[in-house]
Amino acid sequence: MYNTSSMSTATGLNLSARETPQSVSVLTKQRMLDQDLKNVTSAVDNITGISVRQSDSDRFSFTSRGMRIKNILRDGVATYYDTRFNYGDNLLDTILFDRIEVVRGAAGLMVGPGQPSAVINLIRKRPTRDFRGEVMMAVGSWDKWRTGLDLSGPLNAAGTVRGRFITAYQRNNAFIDREQHERYPFYGIVEIDLTANTLLTIGADYQFNHTRQGMFGGLPIFFSDGSKTDYKRHTSYAPDWAFSKVRSFSMFTSLQHQFANNWSMKGTFTYDNNTLDQKVLWATGYPNPNNNQGMYPGSMTLIDGSRRQTSFDLQLNGDYGLFSRTHHASFGINYQKQHFQNDYYSALCMLKKTCKSLGDFRQSNWNYPQPSWSKSRTYGSKGYIEQTAGYAVTQLSLMDPVTLILGGRLTSWKTRGDDFNQPKNGSYSDQFVPYGGLIYDIAPDISIYGSYTQIFDPESRVDRNGQLLKPVSGENFELGIKGIAMDNSVDYSLALFEIRQNNFTQLDSNAPPRPDGSRVYYAIDGVKTRGFEVEVSGQLTDDWKIYAGYTQFRGTDRDGKRINREIPNRLFKLFTTYTLPGAMSNLTIGGGVNWQGSTWQLLDGPVKKQVKVEQASFAVVNLMGRYQFTPALSLTVNLNNLFDKTYYTQFGDYKQYYYGAPRNIEATLNYQF
C-alpha cells in the first residue's frame, strides 16, 4: 500500500489523514522498496513539498514551504537537527523503519519550538506475533553491494514475548572521484506483555557511517576572470586523508497500560548518543580558467564532535462523554535535554597562514599532502539545549458532520553554550502555542477543514557578528479539502496555506563563512508565505498504485519581494507501479519523476558584484521493474536518472555548487520466509 490508516504525529490523537486538519503525507515501506529508497535522505526527497539540499558528501538540509526542517522524530521523539554537523540523522538506513510520516506546516503542539515547515517522524518496525524473516542482496553502480537481514516473531511459546532483529551492510564508491562510503545498521527490539493490558518495550539501534575521501563543500562557481566554471561531475578536491566517521546510538524503553475505561497511559524514555570524527579540507578562491590554479584551503580541520540527548514523555489518551456525544483527548508532559560539543583542531599551516595552493585538482593523480595538526583545540562549540513542556488536545464531536480539535502547548526552553568563542545563551519561559482545527464532512468520503496555530522558534543561527538571532514568531493558517476513494484505498487532498512571521532568518549570501564553515544570517519582519499543495496516494486498482504531489508557494518580505530564492518554490513528485495481468502477472513495472522549479541568487563575483547565478527548472526520471519468481522470491531493478540529467543539489552557498548523481542502476534480490 502507498497510504496508511492512521497517524498521530500532528496532534497526538490517533487520527486518519482525513481527520487531521493539516497537510500530512506518509511514505510506506512498500514505496521505499519500490523506489529503492535505502536511507532517510533519499526517502524524504520523494515526499510531497520537501526539498533536499546536499552541500557536500555528507551534509544535507531539508526544507518545506521555503523554510528549513529543524526536527526529525523517531517514534514521535524529537531530535533538534543542526545541519552544520552531520550526526547521522539524515543517513539512517530505512531498513529500520516501517514508514515515514510527515506533517507540513507548524507542528508546535507535539514538537515544541520549530519552523512552520514540516516535521519528519521515522516510525520504527515492531515485532510481529508470527515468525517471519527477510533477507536481501543488492548490487549497483559504482561498485555498490549490500546485504540485509530482518527477523521477527515470538520468543516464547505463549507469544507474550516478541522480538525483532534487523541488520544490513552496504559499501559503495561514488560518482565523485576517489569517494567511498560504508555503513552498517543494527536494530533490536523486544515487546513483553506483562499483563493482558500492560506492554513493556525495550529496544536499541546503532549505525556506523564511514566516508573516505569525501568532499567538504562544493566546486567553485566562478573562474578568476568572472566566467562560470563547468567542471565534470566526477571532479573532486578531497585529499586521500579526508574522512568522516559518524556513529549513531539510540536506546529506548516504554511502558504502556490500557485501563478498563478506554483510557491508556504510556511513558517513554529515550537516550541518544552520537559521535562525529572528521578530517576535512574546504577550498576557497577563484581558479584560473586556463590552468585551474588558484584555489587554497579555506579551512583544514580535524573535528571531534559528540551529541547526547535524553528524552522523557508521558502521555494519557482516552475517550470521554459530554452532551451525549463521545469525544477524544490526549494529555502529555515531556522533557528533553541535548548536550553537544564540537572541537576543531586546525592544520598548523592554517594557523601560520602558510598553506600551499591546491593546484589543478582535475588531474587523475592529484592529492594534497596531509598537514600537521594542532595538538590543542583551536575553536569549537559546546553547550546544551533544554526543553520542558506540557500539552493537551481534544477532538470534540460537535455534531455528526462537524469535529473541532482544540489544544495547546506550554513550553520552557533554554540554551547555554559557547559557539566559536561567542556566547550563545537564551531562555524563554512559559511560551504558549495554541492549536485549533475544524473539520466538516460534506459527504461520507469528503471533508473540508481549517486550522490555526502559532509559531515560536528560538534560533540557533547567528549574524555576521556572531550574535544569536531572536526567536521567530508568527501564525500558521491552513484551509483544505480531503477525501477517500476506491473503497478507502486512495487518499487525496488539496491545501491552501498562509504563514506570517517576524524575525525571519535570511541567508547573508556575501558574508564570509564562520570558522566551522557555517553561514551567517540576518532577521527580517513582515514575512508572508502563501501557497498550495495537492496530493494523491494509494491503490487505484488491485494492480495499480500511485503517489503524486505538487507544491507551489511564494514567500515575500514586507515590500513584496521574494525571499529564499535559492529554495525551489515549485515541486512535483510522481511515482506509480502497475502489475501486469494474466500470464505476465509476475511482472511489475513502474516509474516516476521528480521536478523542481528554477532557483537563483545574487552573488559577488571576482570581477562584478551582484552576479545572478541560476539553476533552471529540471526533472529527474526514474524507472523500476520487479519479477516475482515465487511468492517469497523477487528481483527488483531500479534505474535512476534515466536521461542522465546534469543538475545541482546545491547552487550558490559559499559561491560553490554540488552535482546530483548521474544515471545509475541497482538490482535487489529479496527473499521472504
Automatic annotation (TrEMBL):
<keyword id="KW-0472">Membrane</keyword>
<keyword id="KW-0813">Transport</keyword>
<keyword id="KW-0812">Transmembrane</keyword>
<protein>
    <submittedName>
        <fullName>TonB-dependent siderophore receptor</fullName>
    </submittedName>
</protein>
<feature type="domain" description="TonB-dependent receptor plug">
    <location>
        <begin position="17"/>
        <end position="119"/>
    </location>
</feature>
<dbReference type="GO" id="GO:0015891">
    <property type="term" value="P:siderophore transport"/>
</dbReference>
<comment type="similarity">
    <text>Belongs to the TonB-dependent receptor family.</text>
</comment>
<keyword id="KW-1134">Transmembrane beta strand</keyword>
<dbReference type="InterPro" id="IPR010105">
    <property type="entry name" value="TonB_sidphr_rcpt"/>
</dbReference>
<dbReference type="Pfam" id="PF00593">
    <property type="entry name" value="TonB_dep_Rec_b-barrel"/>
</dbReference>
<dbReference type="InterPro" id="IPR012910">
    <property type="entry name" value="Plug_dom"/>
</dbReference>
<dbReference type="InterPro" id="IPR000531">
    <property type="entry name" value="Beta-barrel_TonB"/>
</dbReference>
<dbReference type="GO" id="GO:0009279">
    <property type="term" value="C:cell outer membrane"/>
</dbReference>
<keyword id="KW-0406">Ion transport</keyword>
<dbReference type="InterPro" id="IPR039426">
    <property type="entry name" value="TonB-dep_rcpt-like"/>
</dbReference>
<dbReference type="InterPro" id="IPR036942">
    <property type="entry name" value="Beta-barrel_TonB_sf"/>
</dbReference>
<dbReference type="InterPro" id="IPR037066">
    <property type="entry name" value="Plug_dom_sf"/>
</dbReference>
<keyword id="KW-0732">Signal</keyword>
<feature type="domain" description="TonB-dependent receptor-like beta-barrel">
    <location>
        <begin position="203"/>
        <end position="642"/>
    </location>
</feature>
<keyword id="KW-0675">Receptor</keyword>
<dbReference type="InterPro" id="IPR010917">
    <property type="entry name" value="TonB_rcpt_CS"/>
</dbReference>
<keyword id="KW-0408">Iron</keyword>
<dbReference type="GO" id="GO:0038023">
    <property type="term" value="F:signaling receptor activity"/>
</dbReference>
<dbReference type="Pfam" id="PF07715">
    <property type="entry name" value="Plug"/>
</dbReference>
<feature type="short sequence motif" description="TonB C-terminal box">
    <location>
        <begin position="656"/>
        <end position="673"/>
    </location>
</feature>
<keyword id="KW-0998">Cell outer membrane</keyword>
<keyword id="KW-0410">Iron transport</keyword>
<keyword id="KW-0798">TonB box</keyword>
<dbReference type="GO" id="GO:0015344">
    <property type="term" value="F:siderophore uptake transmembrane transporter activity"/>
</dbReference>
